[in-house]
Amino acid sequence: MCFSQGCSLIASFCLYHQAETPNEPLPFKVAIFICGGVPLQVLEDLGIDVSQEAWDMNNKSAKALAEQASTDSILKSGLSRWVNAEGVIPRSDAALDETNLFGLDFTKMPKHLRIKVPTVHIYGNKDPRCPASLQLAQFADPALRKSYDHGGGHDVPRKTDVSESIAKLVEWSALAASVP
Length: 180
Prior knowledge:
By secondary structure, the chain is α/β, with parallel strands linked by helices. 40% of the residues lie in helices and 9% in strands.
């Protein structure tokens, strides 16, 4: 289970593992990603085309996160600092286009790079880095992937109903991996 930059680390590890040792299983049975993505530099290193649109979205969302997560913003606005910035975060009901998901074309992604363990992708539709979370989810095997919008910003959700929903997803991942 990882959050934010921890997701970047684990996602990078998974993709490099798949590229370098595709016939060996990952050293863990499930991966749960909360509000995080894969670094675009890693994708380029693996030979995946990263468009200027993807870089622009990455830079725009990183800047928005830095502004909304600053100490001043936290002290001034608390949780209300997470705003759904026009043009940064997709509507939660928007259909995802795998041919252009914030500048990445997942129809051209090498299938051997897919993460082959059950994954849960938890994101907040008010998180400026939501596009990165949605991109990361596309690197997971669709048959072994669940996604959940916790409705908040770039934070670990704490509301009871959200925590219960996430607990069910964790249980699903364990069952999908046949973890006792």
